[in-house]
Design a protein that fits this description.
Length: 252
């Protein structure tokens, strides 16, 4: 039918043409082209920093200054980053589809790109809360003061992210499960697919019979479950797909 594109993309375009509800499940890879380091692989954060020393509650209690400093460092990277063509294409897709973004990322870039419905499974690096009284310190700009802050109750203020061993936010998780079960197709973009229970979301979509497209630089544990896997940069592949879709849809 679409003789000018390869078979894999043809399958995706055919499915897109009959779809209404699309879920994008994203990981650190989608923000890599915005200059935000991924966690695993070459240049990943976990190559330089140990997760057991930084990304769990016990590490925070043991050395709050160190953990806070690490998040300050990452907040600065996030603050100076811009959404890339991957994030922007997903936001543009809202013109044609009901789009739900389910993201493991904490960087706000989907929201800044204009996506309206974003479920953040691992929290948000720009938000914080007191570990004692739970008072929220959302979007407070800590960048001018690198030292850890204390709440008025004396409790330590921590970033509102999900560390290893912690529960994911329940409402966000169940909304994501519902979106995965009720969509027409799901794109899984830029995740190593190693961290649970987030990784259960695409699996639930697949079990419910949804068409699953993976976009990644390399094969992952998900590849064998995907209907189609496209290997390459999200910031290139996603805009290409949208352009190809628009050509057919708008008959140009
Ligand atoms: C590109 C690209 C480009 C690059 N274009 N692609 C043993 C077995 C199974 C599970 C466990 C286990 N032991 C412990 C667990 C549970 C644990 C877990 O899953 N661990 C595994 C790692 C083994 N999970 C948890 O602890 C979770 N909580 C939990 O289970 O609670 C249950 C419970 C609680 C209490 C009591 C009892 C039960 C919580 C997990 C929280 C994860 N948190 C982090 C840090 C967030 C805060 C922060 O940012 O600092 O979340 S870890 C880190 O990994 C971060 C990410 O969101 C998450 C996923 O990473 P992601 O996004 O996949 O990134 P990468 O770097 O791994 O991959 C990037 C990919 O992009 C690669 O594939 C590249 O190829 C690709 N890529 N450039 C396209 N341009
Ligand atoms: Zn407090």
């Amino acid at each position: 039918m679409f003789y000018f594109i390869d078979m894999q993309r043809e399958k995706i375009l055919e499915k897109l043409l009959s779809s209404k509800k699309i879920v994008f499940f994203t990981g650190a890879g989608i923000s890599a082209e915005s200059g935000i380091p991924t966690f695993r692989g070459e240049g990943g954060l976990w190559k330089k920093f140990k997760p057991e020393e930084l990304a769990n509650f016990n590490a925070f209690i043991k050395n709050p200054e160190l953990v806070w400093e690490w998040y300050q460092y990452r907040r600065k990277i996030v603050k100076n980053a811009e959404p890339n063509l991957g994030h922007k294409t997903i936001a543009l897709m809202q013109k044609y589809f009901d789009v739900t973004v389910v993201t493991q990322n904490v960087d706000n870039l989907h929201i800044r790109a204009g996506s309206n419905l974003v479920h953040e499974l691992h929290g948000n690096i720009e938000k914080n809360y007191c570990i004692k009284c739970k008072k929220r310190y959302d979007y407070v700009d800590f960048n001018d003061d690198d030292k850890i802050s204390k709440c008025e109750c004396g409790g330590l203020i921590r970033p509102d992210v999900v560390w290893f061993g912690e529960m994911l936010p329940q409402v966000q998780f169940s909304n994501s499960e519902n979106a995965a079960k009720n969509c027409d197709m799901i794109f899984v973009v830029g995740t190593s697919f190693l961290v649970y229970p987030a990784a259960d979301i695409p699996i639930k979509a697949k079990i419910s019979g949804k068409f699953l497209v993976e976009i990644n630089l390399e094969e992952t544990e998900l590849t064998r479950f995907a209907d189609v896997s496209l290997f390459g940069s999200a910031g290139i592949i996603l805009p290409q797909l949208l352009i190809e879709f628009e050509k057919i849809k708008l008959n140009v």
